[in-house]
Amino acid sequence: MARAAPLLAALTALLAAAAAGGDVPPGKIAVVGAGIGGSAVAHFLQQHFGPRVQIDVYEKGTVGGRLATISVNKQHYESGAASFHSLSLHMQDFVKLLGLRHRREVVGRSAIFGGEHFVLEETDWYLLNLFRLWWHYGISFLRLQMWVEEVMEKFMRIYKYQAHGYAFSGVEELLYSLGEATFVNMTQHSVAESLLQVGVTQRFIDDVVSAVLRASYGQSAAMPAFAGAMSLAGAQGSLWSVEGGNKLVCSGLLKLTKANVIHAAVTSVTLHSTEGKALYQVAYENEVGNSSEFYDIVVIATPLHLDNSSSNLTFAGFHPPIDHVQGSFQPTVISLVHGYLNSSYFGFPDPKLFPFANILTTDFPSFFCTLDNICPVNISASFRRKQPQEAAVWRVQSPKPLFRTQLKTLFRSYYSVQMAEWQAHPLYGSRPTFPRFALHDQLFYLNALEWAASSVEVMAVAAKNVALLAYNRWYQDLDKIDQKDLMHKVKTEL
Ligand SMILES: Cc1cc2nc3c(=O)[nH]c(=O)nc-3n(C[C@H](O)[C@H](O)[C@H](O)COP(=O)(O)OP(=O)(O)OC[C@H]3O[C@@H](n4cnc5c(N)ncnc54)[C@H](O)[C@@H]3O)c2cc1C
Ligand SMILES: *[C@@H]1O[C@H](CO)[C@@H](O)[C@H](O)[C@H]1NC(C)=O
Ligand SMILES: *[C@@H]1O[C@H](CO)[C@@H](O)[C@H](O)[C@H]1NC(C)=O
Ligand SMILES: *[C@@H]1O[C@H](CO)[C@@H](O)[C@H](O)[C@H]1NC(C)=O
Ligand SMILES: *[C@@H]1O[C@H](CO)[C@@H](O)[C@H](O)[C@H]1NC(C)=O
Ligand SMILES: *[C@@H]1O[C@H](CO)[C@@H](O)[C@H](O)[C@H]1NC(C)=O
Ligand SMILES: *[C@@H]1O[C@H](CO)[C@@H](O)[C@H](O)[C@H]1NC(C)=O
């Protein structure tokens, strides 16, 4: 009897603490989706809650999600997200943490094709480029650069806020803390409007800005300024990708976290309450059948959009009910073509003289957005880019699957074509309200941020935010949620 007393006391203390909702860590956490968002949030959650919390990650397709590769002629190539801006700080951290490396750069020249001729060509000599841009477009180029830099500089504040443990429960609060009314306004006005206002000419927007937006989002300069600025930043800075494939970051993070990856499609999340504390029942389906588990915290790390919902997830038992997000995604097709480019189509009858590796388009040849001579994810030291007259692997991005006739236009002949069809980015329209990160006490929606801007690094930022939000909420640290004037606060905190 005497020996049981301390155990009993310990149990009582534990129960009391649990009742207070206080210092006991959560037992189990579910993450739905193993793309970069889900993998990163699993890692951050473990970082904050400690190694003893069990993290289950549900994935109905393949780990990596929109980070994926396809094999062509015995080599692997990126078929989803291809590259990241140098200032993608979370992604840079992951690569370091996992002992991965940046893939070696193999230089190639870019140009913008306007349907009949190239409207802009990159030359070998940087200064000459600037001179040409100046000659064609005057000061527009510099104004664009200043506009993008200002947005990026403000966006980078998020890393400081996150390092200090601050989180936001909605997209609007997050944007406001970074760029005040200007950022929120930039989600409600178009790229074109914003650029015209700072003195960029319509011609520069039509020739250059539109081509970059088409290449990154498959959308036009009518898309919102905030998402546009983030993708234009990508066109300016130096870009990088991961040796061996970008998706290695996802599998690496999940392995590092020792997350329990469950290959199943989550079908519903149902709220149960026990003594005032929320408990979430996650139901899932796989070849074995249907099953369910209970969790203290649930993170949805996949888009929840209504039409063509690729996730097919429903919520039950919530009052008020959790509505599905309205809106749809931009279909994007990536075709990896192993073959010979038809350089005549681009005005170069002699294929040996074709100088470009990356071709962007204005909306004139509307059946494709970009055409790139790509390198495999593993680049050996002896690797060299294929000459334009040789058979090479080309990556064509288009809004719809390419017809045979279209392929025959772009390529003299080809050995193989493989296509990946994606729901790539939100189709940005005029959206009065954003979805929120916090759907319920401990139920979170990571991809809410995709409705402001959609990129791998933005999803990593959302993952860190959601992990901090869950942590601050769990331990009732309300001073770290939705705080105003953070620039001032982080300056005075040491
Ligand atoms: C062709 C293409 C090119 C791109 N290029 C770039 C680029 O160059 N740079 C860049 O930064 N970004 C780029 N992006 C965008 C980038 O890929 C995405 O923003 C990012 O990868 C999204 O990650 P995520 O984890 O939020 O979502 P996803 O990667 O979509 O992950 C969600 C995961 O959840 C799973 N899932 C869905 N529903 C369920 C369910 N009910 N149960 C279980 N699992 C479920 C899915 O199978 C998927 O694996 C590109 C995207 C595409 C498609
Ligand atoms: C919002 O942006 C638009 C277009 O750039 C501009 O005309 C408007 O004055 C801005 N409003 C505010 C409140 O900043
Ligand atoms: C490709 O690179 C990755 C990461 O460096 C490595 O793990 C893998 O073995 C490489 N694969 C090949 C075929 O060289
Ligand atoms: C699993 O549940 C779904 C509904 O969510 C149902 O349609 C399906 O028949 C169930 N499958 C099995 C094997 O019970
Ligand atoms: C779903 O997507 C397909 C092609 O991507 C489209 O044809 C169809 O209309 C979409 N369905 C809805 C309900 O929007
Ligand atoms: C989603 O559910 C609908 C109807 O229940 C079904 O027809 C569709 O195939 C499902 N989609 C996916 C991607 O599972
Ligand atoms: C190549 O492009 C030219 C010019 O557009 C076109 O006439 C020709 O049919 C295309 N295809 C081949 C195989 O040359």
Largest sheet: 7 strands, mixed
How do the strands of the widest beta sheet line up side by side?
7-6-16-17-18-15-19
Shape: globular
Would you tell me the overall average pLDDT? Answer: 90
What's the number of helices?
14
Low-confidence stretches: 10-20
**Proportion of β residues?**
15-25%
In whole angstroms, the N-to-C terminal distance is 51 Å
- Judged by helices, strands and strand pairing, the structural class is alpha/beta
Bound molecules: flavin-adenine dinucleotide, 2-acetamido-2-deoxy-beta-D-glucopyranose
Query: What proportion of the residues is helical, as a percent range?
Result: 25-40%
Cα-based radius of gyration, to the nearest Å: 24 Å
How many extended strands?
21
Characterize this entry briefly.
This protein has 494 residues and is of the alpha/beta class. The chain is 34% helix and 24% strand. The model is unreliable at 10-20 (pLDDT under 50).
Structure keywords:
494 residues; alpha/beta; 7-stranded mixed sheet; 6-stranded mixed sheet; 34% helix; globular; binds flavin-adenine dinucleotide; binds 2-acetamido-2-deoxy-beta-D-glucopyranose
Please characterize this protein's 3D structure.
With 494 residues, the chain is of the alpha/beta class. It has 14 helices and 21 strands. It has a 7-stranded mixed sheet. The protein has a 6-stranded mixed sheet with strand order 9-2-1-13-21-20, with helices on one face. A hairpin with a 2-residue loop joins strand 11 and strand 12 (289-295). Helix 2 (36-49) packs parallel to helix 11 (248-257), helix 5 packs across helix 10 (225-236) and helix 9 (202-217) crosses helix 10 (225-236). The longest helix is centred in the last third of the chain and has 19 residues, at 456-474. Bound molecules: flavin-adenine dinucleotide and 2-acetamido-2-deoxy-beta-D-glucopyranose (6 copies). Residues 120-483 form the Prenylcysteine lyase domain. Belongs to the prenylcysteine oxidase family. InterPro entries: FAD/NAD-bd_sf, Prenylcys_lyase, Prenylcysteine_Oxase1.
